[in-house]
Amino acid sequence: MTYQAFYRVYRPQSFREMSGQAHVKRTLQNALLANKTTHAYLFSGPRGTGKTSTAKIFAKALNCERAPSNEPCNECATCISITDGSHPDVIEFDAASNSRVEEIRDIIEKVRFAPASSRYKVYIIDEVHMLSTSAFNALLKTLEEPPPHAVFILATTEPHKLPATIISRCQRFDFKRLSTNDIIERMKVVLEDIELPYEEQGLKVIAQSAAGGMRDALSLLDQVVSFSGEKLKLEDTLLVTGSISQEVFYDLAEALKVKDVAKMLALLEQLIADGKDPLRLSEDLITFFRDLLLLQTSDELTELLELVSPEERVFTLAHDFAPDLLYGYIDILAKTQQEMRFSHHTKIYLETALLKMVQFSGGLVSQTTSTVEAALSPELAQKIVALEQTVQQLSAQLQAGAPVQQMQAPKEQRPRAKSPNGYKAPTGRIQEVLKDATKQDVHRIKSVWAQALNQMQKSQSALLAEAEPVAASSSAFVLKFKYDIHCQMVADNQSLKAQFTQLIAGQTGTMYEMLCTPEETWLKLREEFIRDHGLQQQKKSQTVSEQEMELLEPPPAEMPDEPFIDDAQPLASQDPLVTEAEKLFGKDFIEIVED
After folding, report:
1. What family name appears in the similarity comment (predicted)?
2. Which of 98, 321, 471, 550 is most buried, judging by how many CB atoms fall within 10 Å of its CB?
């Protein structure tokens, strides 16, 4: 007799032999016992989950000579002929190769004839989603009201392609992917039948590669059995399926733990050289870290493990990583996996993901102290340092025998001015810049301002478009923003500030510090500085320093934008009407004419 593949020889012939799909079996068996079967069924689900096999078993149970029964006897002539595919009243129809309307019309014409030798004429239409639109339309009426002796069983892997009018005329059963345990148990039955010893870890590898499909699992098992000798070994299954052993994953995790980049990339290079697919590698790594999380959660979840075996060293490795670290690894690999699907350079993506994971590895359990310290806010960390210093000082005084003096409370620092959106301008640093500000420095910044903006990206220069330098010293300049949100975005973007100050330094030869402040805060700071330093009384005062005289010089006509102090001089004599007009229309649209 010609050799047959395992998935054909060991196709289930009764509901009892079916793996999984308990909800489908129970519903159909109850309907058979109560004689409440309907005229149309729709079996949908992934490939290899038992749709066609269930349809044949149900057809045998309907026409079995011992019916009504919840199981076919598989002994009567009807059951045997249906199993052989020779029964005239059970018609299997492949819609993938017979999708035209003519084939459906042939079924419609013959369906009204009574069955030849059984109670029901059963039509099993496989891959029904492949039918053409006209074929579906021709089938509609017959599917809704067939003769009493006709039963239609439609099977498909893509139910979303069926018209809603077809689905609504059927009882729908959704077949689910089979669990790893169901697949392993079925493979054990096959191996025991052929009397071949096996390693259970090898069966796990096959079950994982099958991805929930029994037909795929039996096909892989058939291939591994042909490759193996007297025993089915783990090494044979890894080689045939292209999977990776637990040892390799263990070595990769150890390299990640100690941040051994060279060893980690060498392992990856060896796997790629052995023909492993990087996309499959990323999936297996995700499964491996998922298994480590399960081992961390509970020792009783070993039955759910897919890649690792519950060994002592694996338990130790699982507890060497913090849960947040493993979650981070899985997130990195999942995002990389999505990017790899649209690229031909999958190896580079996987190498980059591993490097990210090495840099991310700051959550080892042995590093708990540093993790907690890193989680503290900067303010709280500063307070802890100050308290530690105080304790050390007091301890030193007590050891020296000196009387302990009552410590004075530290002088409260002046809080930064806070804009309405929550941004705090560095007012203290701005005050220091104003003390040393000169016209030459601010003019130097303004002279290269436009050129520096043109060298930046449009998205970055747009944030600085409504800003202007209003004061500058030899080491820093103050940048006033018209909009508070732009001020906060620029102040929080350290890379943008560094890039812009480098562009300014390239033009001026000086590396300046950039201080950002909203316009409202700037006006308050300017007014306070003028009041504190008495610059409004400059004409009356006779003790003006050389620096203030430098700042009080009238600005040149070709430079309408003045440094801080020039902008502050007219405050005392500014007309309220002029101020209000400038607020409404802007300075550029106001012209003051004195009578």
Report:
1. Belongs to the DnaX/STICHEL family.
2. 471
**Alpha carbons 135 and 429: distance in angstroms, whole number:** 80
Same domain, 159 and 60: yes
Decide: 495 and 484 in contact? Cβ < 8 Å.
no
Question: Residues 349-378: pLDDT tens digits?
Answer: 888 888 888 888 554 444 444 444 444 455
Asked if residue 164 and residue 145 are part of one domain, the reply reads yes
How does pLDDT run across 426-444, given as a tens digit for each residue?
A: 888 888 888 888 888 888 8
C-alpha 142/C-alpha 152 separation (Å) is 10
Q: Do 148 and 24 sit in the same domain of this protein? A: yes
Backbone angles phi, psi at 40, to 5 degrees: -150, 135
Task: At 358, list the tokens.
Answer: 């090495």
Q: CB neighbours of 558 closer than 8 A, spacing ≥ 6?
A: none
Q: Which residue has better confidence, 253 or 565? A: 253
The answer on 76 and 213 residing in a single domain is no
**Residue where one domain finishes, among candidates 213, 241, 269:** 241
| 201 and 257 fall within a common domain | no
The DSSP-derived string for 432-445 is HHHHT--HHHHHHH
Q: What is the pLDDT of residue 544?
A: 43
- What range does the domain containing 254 cover? 246-361
Distance CA 210, CA 221 (A): 10
Domain count, the chain: 4
Task: Please give the backbone phi and psi of residue 467, each rounded to the nearest 5 degrees, phi first.
Answer: -105, 155
At residue 60, what is the residue type? K
The C-alpha atoms of residue 224 and residue 236 are separated, in whole angstroms, by 7
CB-based contacts of 126: which residues, under 8 Å, 6+ apart?
A: 52, 92, 93, 94, 95, 96, 155
| Lookup result for tokens 């893509």 | 158
| Whether residue 186 is found in the same domain as residue 146 | no
Residue at a domain's end among 151, 174, 197: 174
CA neighbor of 349 nearest in space, from 340, 358, 341 = 340
Name 198's bridge partners: 232
Tens-digit pLDDT profile for residues 441-471: 888 888 888 888 888 887 777 778 878 888 8
In a domain, 422, yes or no: no
Amino acid at 131: L
25 and 162, same structural domain?
yes
**Mean pLDDT to the nearest integer, 337-346:** 84
Q: Strand pairing of 40-44 and 90-94?
A: unpaired
What per-residue string of b and e applies to 135-145 under the rule 16 or more CB within 10 Å gives b?
Answer: bbebbeebbee
Residue 578 lies in a domain: yes
